[in-house]
Amino acid sequence: MTVFHRDGERVIATHYCAQGNQPRLALGGNGGDGFAFDYATGLKDGASHLHRLVLAPLANGGLQREETYRAASGDESGRLSLRRLAAAQ
């Protein structure tokens, strides 16, 4: 689960991971687009953790979520495209 919230002038994403760590990512961190790793609680050395998160609108009204996890073995990225379904009647 990822919770988005303000922290002073910044927008932060805190990711509550099933792996037991809680990385915090800052919007525009490291001069890039999306959210970039700021720090984490509960993170063991070399353990996998959410390191980058980008949310982008799609032309069809959906949303694309791109996330990068970092571990001692390297980075692994994935994309998830979300679309709105018509309301059930």
Structure overview:
The chain is mostly beta strands and 89 residues long. The chain has one domain. Helix content is 0%, strand content 58%. The protein has no helices and 7 strands. It has a 7-stranded antiparallel sheet, with no helix packed on it. It is globular and about 50 Å long. The mean pLDDT is 92.
Give me a quick take on this structure:
By secondary structure, this protein is mostly beta strands. It is built from no helices and seven strands.
List the helices and strands and how they pair.
Elements: E1 2-7, E2 10-15, E3 22-27, E4 35-41, E5 49-57, E6 63-71, E7 74-82
Antiparallel strand pairs: 1-2, 2-3, 3-4, 4-5, 5-6, 6-7
User: Which spans have pLDDT < 50 for at least 5 consecutive residues?
Assistant: none
Q: What Rg do the Cα atoms give?
A: 14 Å
Mean pLDDT, all residues: 92
CA-to-CA gap between the ends? 29 Å
Strand order of the largest sheet: 1-2-3-4-5-6-7
**Into which percentage range does the β-strand content fall?**
over 45%
Instruction: State the secondary-structure class.
Output: mainly beta
Number of helical segments with 4 or more residues: 0
| Proportion of helical residues | under 10%
> Describe the biggest sheet?
7 strands, antiparallel
Element-by-element helix/strand order: EEEEEEE
Whole-number tally of structural domains: 1
Q: Tags for this entry?
A:
7-stranded antiparallel sheet, 0% helix, 89 residues, 58% strand, globular, mainly beta
